[in-house]
Amino acid sequence: YIGVPEFMGEVVGIHDSNLFEKFISTSILLDGTRHIGHHLFGHWTLVIFSIAAALLGILIALYLYLIKPSSADKIAENEVIKPLYEGSLNKWYVDELYDYIIVQPFSYIAEQASKFDQKFIDGAVNGVAYIVKETALTLQAAQSGALRSYASLMAIGAAIILIFVLLWQF
Questions:
Q1: From the centroid of its chain, how far is CA 89?
Q2: What is the pLDDT of residues 71-89, one digit of tens each?
Q3: Are 59 and 48 contacting, i.e. CB atoms less than 8 angstroms apart?
Q4: Are 83 and 76 in contact, with CB atoms under 8 Å apart?
Q5: Burial class of 29 by CB neighbour count within 10 A (0 to 12, 13 to 18, 19+)
Q6: pTM for the whole structure
């Protein structure tokens, strides 16, 4: 799906070389506007310009950093160039901006969500566990192992149920 322009694909004999354009063309409505307009430069002229610009940049970098390294420092100290140099050196402060706009707010939200989880969600779960534990400890006393007391409690319970059913009918 690499988007090789059709004019380049035609040179090497590859028809339909821009598969990405075909893939994306169903999503956008640019098909009818493709051949409308006048180009100041042809495709190959733009390719040559971009290659020349890349080569020029490489040659300037070789000169400034390998052939005459002291000239880069002099250029960086120029008052007009210095802000551009500082911005470039610090990656145009994109990392700092990203940290301020994205990372810090989401870290704050995550911290608040964690506090909410610990206080309310974990508190509710731990509260239910505490109630069950205390109920079990309270009912543990009723488990004495004496069959006579079990039979007595069962008879009392049956009597209560019978009285409730009889009173409920009237």
A1: 27
A2: 888 888 899 999 999 999 9
A3: no
A4: no
A5: exposed
A6: 0.48
